[in-house]
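Researcher: Go.
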Amino acid sequence: MFRLLKPDHLCVSFYGWSQTALFLDAWQRAGFRVVGHIAFPKRYTSTVRLMRFQHENAYLLAKGRPEAPAWPIGDVIDWVYTGNKLHPTQKPLAVLTPPIASFCEPGGVVLDPFAGSGSTLVAARSIGRCFVGVEVEGAVHAVAARRLNAYARAIRRGDCVGLA
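Model: Structure:
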């Protein structure tokens, strides 16, 4: 990701809290600087172990010295439950759209190297950003492709799109 990111731009990366040290080390070795952290509180429990897990996290990473965005977002964004019908770790569009709008300029390209069900790609498309998605699992890739095609058909028809 670092190699592909333009100089003086930002990257948002979700991570598993139990692997924080590994993620931080990998990002720093790649050349990223951590410049922010986003918390996504959930109104439901996704897993129960010693605690009830009720949040997701992402780091805001910088390559170089990016300018402040025109519309900075808060570092806490409420998580809207999707039901994870399309993928076990499906991200809601309402969670992805604000960081994309803030950190990727109009006409910019959003890269999702773990595209899953295509949520990031649909969110990018919904606000006029280009996108590149990578998904290695064939069946999951097919889900994302169907989702993007359905979104494109709805836009062409002028339908109100209500994708989660």
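Model: The radius of gyration is 16 Å.
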